[in-house]
Structures are given as structure tokens and as C-alpha cells.
Amino acid sequence: xxxxxxxCKVASLxxxxxxxxxxxxxxxxxxxGALPDAKNKGPKPEVIPPNERRRAPLPVRLAVxxxxxxxxxxxxxxxxxxxxxxSGLGDTDLTDYMCKxxxxxxxxxxxxxxxNSVHNAPAGYWTISTKTMRAANSVAGFExxxxxxxxxxxxxxxxxxxxxxxxxxxxxxxxxLSPLLANQEPFAxxxxxxxxxxxxxxxxxxxxxxxxESVSWPASPSENSYLSALYKDNPSAKILSLAALxxxxxxxxxxxxxxxxxxxxxxxxxx
Amino acid sequence: MNIDIIDYDSCxxxxxxxxxxxASLQHHRSGLRKNDLPGSTLDTWIGRVAQIDAVTDxxxxxxxxxxxxxxxxxxxxxxxxxxxxxxxxxxxxxxxxMGSSTSSIDRTxxxxxxxxxxxxxxxxxxxxxxxxxxxxxxxxxxxxxxEGPSLTINTACSSSAKxxxxxxxxxxxxxxxxxxxxxxxxxxxxxxxxxxxxxxxSTNPCxxxxxxxxxxxxxxxxxxxxxxxxxxxxxGVGIKLAGYGESSDAYHMSHPHxxxxxxxxxxxxxxxxxxxxxxxxxxxxxxxTSSRANDLIEGRLISDLFPKTTQCSSTKGWMGHxxxxxxxxxxxxxxxxxxxxxxxxxxxxxxxxxxxxFSIQAAHLQKSCQHVMTNSFGFGGNNCTLLFSxxx
Lengths: 271, 392
Hints:
The structure holds two protein chains of two kinds.
Chain A: E1 6-17, H1 23-30, H2 50-55, H3 58-72, E2 82-86, H4 92-102, H5 111-116, H6 121-130, E3 136-140, H7 145-160, E4 164-170, E5 187-195, E6 203-210, H8 225-233, H9 240-246, E7 255-261, E8 264-270
Parallel strand pairs in A: 2-3, 2-4
Antiparallel strand pairs in A: 1-5, 1-6, 4-5, 6-8, 7-8
Chain B: E1 3-12, H1 18-26, E2 33-34, E3 45-47, H2 64-73, H3 78-89, E4 94-99, H4 105-112, H5 135-144, E5 150-153, H6 159-172, E6 178-185, H7 189-197, E7 218-219, E8 221-229, E9 239-248, H8 261-274, E10 283-285, H9 292-305, E11 311-313, H10 316-319, H11 326-340, E12 342-343, E13 365-366, E14 371-378, E15 382-390
Parallel strand pairs in B: 3-7, 4-5, 4-6, 10-11, 10-14
Antiparallel strand pairs in B: 1-8, 1-9, 2-3, 6-8, 9-15, 12-13, 14-15
Protein name (chain B): Beta-ketoacyl-ACP synthase
Family (chain B): Belongs to the thiolase-like superfamily. Beta-ketoacyl-ACP synthases family.
InterPro entries (chain B): Beta-ketoacyl_synthase, Ketoacyl_synth_AS, Ketoacyl_synth_C, Ketoacyl_synth_N, PKS_Beta-ketoAc_synthase_dom, Thiolase-like
């Protein structure tokens, strides 16, 4: 069987990083805008109650912030959205905390930090904060996190005929692991997608999986040195290559190809 | 949905492979033992796989988790089945979906006990493909030579149940022609001391659904199943994935919804997808961790949703709660009842919780089953139910 063409409509987007706090401000940077003088503080996603937010680790706050932004203009309430969350690196601050405590004499872990250490903590905080009882997935794909998760999200959206939130997030890596995993920048990006056949306004995309040629990640879509470094080191920021295809100056027929694995690639086209 | 199970095997403290697992179940032989994991003195019972220690040749892939995945892949006919599929379809048309909660954090823990004088990782631990949450799939792709898409699902204790749902969707859209789904999680200090911090560990062998249960036992396992679209391979095991349900509790990170609303949704979705009524289900393998809360809530839901003709059990008394590998371990036990015609009893059950009333017993039951289900619930309120049916 040949891989079926997947289609979806992108209804809305959210984004957060050191120098942008929305899809609009990220787009300005991507289109050559100057970096703001100071880095953003936070994020502080308002949908998480303050008590919970204080205890929420950075990856959770990143993921929930961009998710909340994207759902504000999606035309549905958040609890109507099936969701898929992905991080290439996970929460290395909590890994670092746990491994340090466990290497010590007393080995007593904080119960809150332990339950926050699960990779699906952002999905948990999101579904709890928004009272979403729909399927929530939490996946990892290391350097292929973006392409694999877009594939997973588009298939789930189409096969279950549901609107879907997909959120990409990665936080700076803790010291001990940073020689292996370079990322030092926080980043989160969210899309709300509908099946291609849905009667809504949105940017229509198709995706095709191919096994015929070897594909590498496209060059950074921006010359901005901050965005280029982000794109290189933060696995979730590889979504910038798709973001470029969703920006206001893109036209029908524009494409971007990404590697999925050694033997498979995926090409997204703007319809 | 129309998905065939082509092959499967399981590796846990209750048996290094399916043949041994069947024998352990048959003879009521539990793999649980007093905690003897090096480095931990916690007073609890664990399901440790002793044979992992012999897998030491993984070089830069070495971790306890990868060793258990490798051990699991060597069992039964998995390698031969995969070789046949590679020959027919090529490596790029086979996918991998692995579930795990620890990935290889066991290796990161070990690395931190042996940092160099500058507090940095020593060369043997500079393993970027191991110290990340995708490690299980990266390793399985390396070990098997599969080159199609490979994804890791990390939704805590529902992880390797959800792999069936994702694998089935990939097949239905033709992304791959076969998919190796699996799960692997290993005992490590993070989970032992983490669950201890939540006061969830029992100092005794676990007793799911028993009036006197007092907590869980942790275990480790790997398990794999190979899926294809229905009718494309005549050499399958005669079992279909008939339905799945996926839902969220939207309640608490580490405590189940008090009325089990999310769990109810995942079970009813699985039934709907399979086009079945509850009374068609012969057997439900319960999540049944032996925690006070889970078993009470899950047991109440079962009596609410299913008639007494549906037999239930928790099999965690055999190998413990294997966390991210529990989904596949129990999916295999569940689907295997369609071949062995034996419903496993609920090990260590003596007196059913007085608040509960559904069909569960310690003894095995001989029955030719047609439709069977299994529940997996995880932290973050993440639920998955799988439904398997005998092929007509």
C-alpha cells in the first residue's frame, strides 16, 4: 500500500521564546525584525492556577503557554481538542535533580518533583487546567521530534476526524548533560489543526510520506543568528521550517521536506 | 478497524519469554522478590529480570533499559518474523512505536554516581542517543535495522498501550506495511524512590483488589508485538486489534479521578470502536496496581459497566507494575487468553475489597474467549484501553 496523502487546516498558532511571546512577534523576527533589547521573563500561562503554576516546571509552562495562545483563536474551547505534546529532550532539570538526589546518601525525592518528572507532565497540566478529557499524547523523537509529531498529529486528526492541538517545546539543558545536548534556549510552538475537509478558515496543508530519497533538515529559515542557533540546537525549534511555510508571505505550492527516519521523509505543501 | 497481530513476545520477572510467562501463570509462580536492586535498601518487593545483567555488549547504547529491550527482542520468533517482513517490504516500510516512562534514566543515574573530578560525564557515559526520552526507539531501530518512522510514546503507565493505537493509525494510512510496537521500562532508583516518596510502595507482595492491599510492587519488562493491516499476512496469530480508547482524567497529576470518568471514557470508546456491547467482553485485564485508590475506582467502574459474565483479573502479582511496559505486558497476557483459552486468576487475591462487587477470583478459569480487553492508566490522568478479538 502507498502512503495516503494527509491534509489538514491550520486554524491558529502560538509561540513563546526568549525574544517573542506570540506567533505574530515570532513572525516579525523571522521576516527580519530586530531582536528586542531584553529577554522575556516567564512564561506565566494564565490558564494554570497561580498555586499550581509556581510549582510547574519550565517545560510545562512553555508548553501550556503556547497551547493557550493557540487555542484562544481556534474557534473552539480547549476541551474540544485532542492533543499531542512533544519534547525532544524532556525535562533535564528534573532529571538532573533526581539523579543528584539519588547519587547522594539520603535519596529522598520530592513527591511533586517526581510526578512532574513524567514526560507527559505538560499534557497532564494542560488537560487538568482546561478540563480536557480527550486523548492526550506525549511523545519523543529526539532530533526528528518535529517531523514525527507532525505526522502523528495529522494522522490522528484525520483518522479520528477531530480538531487537534499539537505543541512542541524544549527547555535549556541542565549543566551535566549539556555537553551532549546543546540546547540552551527555551522554545514552544503550538498549532491547532482541523481535518482537511473541515469547513473552517485556515491554512490548508498536505503532507506526503516518501521512502524514495534521503532528506536532511532544511537550512535555517531565518538569517537572524538567535533564530538560527535556536533552530540548530533546540529539537522543537525545527518547527520553524514549517512555520516559514505558514507565514503571511507564503504562496500556494510552496513546500518543505523533513527527514522522519533513515528510510523515510515527509513533505509538507501549502495548498 | 482491521489490524492483525502477526507475532508477540514478552519478557518480565514472570518469564524471560512468552513460553515461560505461560508456565508461570499456569503454575501460579510469581516473579516478585524482596527488593535486591543494587543501591536501594527500600523495604518492598520488586519484579526484577535477572537475565538483564548478562547483556553487557551494547557499547555506546548500554543502559539497563536498552539491555532489557535487546533481551526481549531475542525471544520467541520476533527476529524471524521481522526478517521475513524486511525481506518482503524492505526496512523503510516497517515502523517502530515504543512506549516507556523511564527511557534510559537508569543510565543517567549511574553516570551521576561516577562523575569526573569536574563534575562532568565520564567518556563511557557520553551517550547522547541514550540520555534522552526517545532512547528506546532509537535503540530498537539500531538493534533491528528497521529504517521506517520510529516514535516513542511517554505517557507514564499507559505508554505501551497507546503504541497499539498509533501503530494501527500508521498502518491504516499506509505510512508503513508493518509496525513493531513495544514497551520497555526498567527498575531504577528514580522509580523506586519516586513511588516511595508518594507512599505508594507495599512492603509485601502486592494484592490487587484485596480488602487488605497496601500498595504496589514495581517491576521491569519489555514486550513487543508486530502489527499489519488485516488480511495482508496469512502467518499471523489469529488475533485482531479490534478497538482502542484514549482519554484524560483532567483531574490530578498522580491521583486518579475519584469517579473514574476518564477511565470510563477510554473503556466505552474501545467498545464503540469495536462495535461491541459490554456483555460481549469475556475478560478484562485490569490496571489493578494494588494501590488503595486505583483498585477501588477501577473496580467500581467495572461493576458499573460490565455484567458478571465478564471475568476480570489483575496480573500485577506475577511481575509487579512494570510502568511504561505494563501496557504491552498486559496486552500480551490479555490477547494470549484467546489462544490458551485460560483466563489468568488475580494473583494474591484473598478477600475482595468489601466495597467492590464484580467477577474476579484468584483461580484461573478455562474459557474459550472471543473478545478481551485491557486497561492502562498513567500519571497525568492518561488512560488507554485495548480490545482484542479472535479472528473469525
